[in-house]
Amino acid sequence: MEILVCVKRVPDSAENEINVAAGGADICREDLVYAVNEWDNYAVEEAIQIVEREGGSVTVVALGDAEIEESVRREMAMGAEQGLMLVDAGFAGSDGLGVATILKAAAQKKRYDLILTGAQAEDGAAQVGGMLAALLDHPYASLVNKVDVNGQTLRIGREIEGGSQELSDIDLPCVLSIQTGINEPRYVGLRGIRKVASVEIPVLNGADLGVDLASVGKAAAKVRRVDYFVPVVSAGAEMLTGSTKEVAAQLVELLKAKGGLN
Amino acid sequence: MATQVFVLIPHAAGKADDAALELLSAARAMFPGVTPTALVLGAGADQTAVAQEAAAAYPEVWGFSQEVLAYPNAELIRPLLLKILPAGAVVLLPHSTLGIDLGPGLSVKLGAAYLPDVVGFDGIDGSLLKVVRQEFSGQVSAHVQADIVKGAVITVRSGAFQPAQPGPAAGTVVDKSAEAAGLTARRRFVEVVQAEAGDVDITREDVLVAVGRGIGEQDNLSLVDELAEAMGATVCCSRPIVDAKWLDKGRQVGTSGATVKPKVYLALGISGAFQHLGGLKGSPFVVAVNKNPKAPIFQAAQVGVVGDLMELLPELTQQIQKAR
Ligand SMILES: Cc1cc2nc3c(=O)[nH]c(=O)nc-3n(C[C@H](O)[C@H](O)[C@H](O)COP(=O)(O)OP(=O)(O)OC[C@H]3O[C@@H](n4cnc5c(N)ncnc54)[C@H](O)[C@@H]3O)c2cc1C
Questions:
Q1: Are residues B173 and B206 in the same domain?
Q2: A229-250 average pLDDT score
Q3: Residue B228 lies in domain
Q4: pLDDT tens digits along A66-103
Q5: Are B7 and B58 contacting, i.e. CB atoms less than 8 angstroms apart?
Q6: What Cα–Cα distance (Å) separates residue B32 from each residue in B25, B61, B307?
Q7: What range defines the domain where residue A104 resides?
Q8: Mean of the pLDDT values across residues A27-55?
Q9: Facing A97 at nearest CB: one of B101, B108, B133
Q10: Would B246 be classed as within a structural domain?
Q11: Does B244 map to a domain?
Q12: Domain closes at, from B123, B148, B180
């Protein structure tokens, strides 16, 4: 099975306090810690496990600037044989459809049986996998939390409301977006990263991919972010202040009063 | 702009989802003066009942009844919508696991703009629609603008719009089942496996201590257990704790976990993503502890503490033990 996994380098929202930059044109990016999008690690792990069972190979692809190399190498260190970087100044500012258009071109460079993405990224749009499937005219399933290979079809589970699992059969080739919890992504140590440090990763631009730069990037985007802002909220929480001892004492009183001590 | 607006009515077991009326509000807010059409896809008596229910609120309902539509499979619904929707249509879907499955591909096939997980409306100017979205788990909001001259697919977050009041007169149901004949897909629904019940039923507890990724390491969970024991409370958690297999799925609060209705909810190291808060109902007294003053959980809490769990938890446990 030839598997392509699309990964994204994002500011890690669990590690960072995200602030809006002056004027709202962007968030403050100076001190942000970047990481591979959480969902994508599960997608790469699932691809590697499928290949360990069924044979084949895993290719990790990322789109962005030169910085994405770090992310691609990290995911390769998990056990993906090949990497692919899609870098072109003309790609900047693409909307979801633009990103999917570029990934489609990369996906057509070779015959992939299965294409995986994370279920969503830090912007919560959860869109690129479904768009890529539509552009390729492949069947699609989102929020996948189980994959079993049965010849030319997969028995997949989708996570639905309440945590129930919807089982379906889907024909290959297909695109799946992977939900967290499907597996336990393996740990990547420094040794693993060193092992793939010298593996050559092809870098493709718009011309290499045959992507018409007029169809992607900022100018082609149908959907645009106008600005970032912090919403004006009505009440919000009453914030307790003081030393740890003082805060704890206030909490004890509040919990007592509200029936929080059984 | 002359736009035709359609709302896909989500339903289960013969009843429309709460989203049906929230989507009607969203449609009215974004496209005043346009009469939205409800789409009810399903099979048998369930489909009939939901179409009737939808007609109490929507002036026009298009009904599609076919055996294959008994369970909502996005891979079947997408080609059906492509066939029946007029050019330039705007489609509203819930940002649910069905909306996420259906929406992105539908927008591509329709050649329409895609606006996912919309939480608010900010105006329309000609064919430019401006909406509000959130990014970075709700830490910041963004105004997003889309050119909808070729239509739009919009998924709306649950709870973002107040449910609409049903209209005065009952609407009409147009039976379009024939158009849904012969649908096939390369993804075939098999069955739904219900989530397993856990060792405790957190949905029945009055006092919950909820732990999130901010606890850092599995070993630190003992601090949370000790606090919960001192309080006489039950431990529940956010999703990453279950993904890491530190606690059972039965203890997860949220849209893909349990819906709880406690009196007191202590949120420890939880950022407050909408999928987590979606499982917290009944207006409990929420106390949040988080090291990040910007964490969205503070918007949902009555009382907040900006601080490190590792320092606060042992102290709090000790003081509660003394207070008893
Ligand atoms: C379809 C779908 C369904 C989902 N369903 C659910 C669901 O049912 N339930 C659910 O919970 N999530 C669900 N999620 C995931 C959700 O989007 C969030 O990713 C998740 O809720 C984040 O969990 P968290 O708040 O524990 O972690 P994070 O968002 O990583 O937050 C950790 C917080 O801890 C704080 N922190 C870190 N260290 C400390 C410290 N030492 N002291 C104090 N604070 C600290 C940080 O500031 C941060 O705010 C779902 C996602 C999807 C896509």
A1: no
A2: 89
A3: 202-323
A4: 999 999 999 999 999 999 999 999 999 999 999 999 99
A5: yes
A6: 10, 18, 46
A7: 2-220
A8: 95
A9: B108
A10: yes
A11: yes
A12: B180
Predicted TM-score of the model (pTM): 0.96
Spatial CA neighbour of B206 closest among B226, B234, B229: B234
> Whose CA is closest to B161, among B132, B138, B135?
B132
Find, among B291, B316, B289, B321, the residue nearest to B305 by Cα. B289
Distance CA B70, CA B73 (A): 9
Same domain, B33 and B173: yes
pLDDT of residue A123: 86
Last residue of a domain, one of B180, B211, B245: B180
Question: Ligand 1 within 6 A of B30 CB?
Answer: no
pLDDT digits (tens, 9 = 90+) for B219-234: 999 999 999 999 999 9
B257 is in an annotated binding site: no
CA–CA dist B43, B25 (Å, integer): 26
Q: How many domains does chain A have?
A: 1
Report the CATH number at residue A182: 3.40.50.620
Residue of A143, A161, A164, A165 to test ligand 1 pocket, by largest number of atoms within 8 Å of CB: A143
Which residue has tokens 């202040």? Answer: A241
ipTM of this complex prediction, to 2 decimal places: 0.96
* Residues of chain A neighbouring B135 (CB-CB closer than 8 A): 18, 122-124, 228
Token pair listed for B225: 């257990």
Q: Which residues of chain B register pLDDT less than 70?
A: 1-2
CATH value at residue B271: 3.40.50.1220
Tell me how close the Cα of B153 comes to any Cα of chain A, in angstroms.
Answer: 12
Residue B236 near ligand 1, beta carbon < 6 Å: no
Could you tell me if B126 and B227 lie in one domain? no
Chain A hits for B302, CB-CB cut-off 8 Å, are 237-238
Residue B271, annotated as binding a ligand = yes
A228 to B141: CB separation less than 8 angstroms, yes or no: yes
Sign, CA torsion A161/A167/A171/A176: positive
Rounded to the nearest 5 percent, the helix, strand and coil shares of chain B are: 35, 30, 35
CB B3 less than 6 A from any atom of ligand 1: no
Average pLDDT of the segment spanning A35-51: 97
Kind of pairing between the strands at B187-193 and A165-171: antiparallel
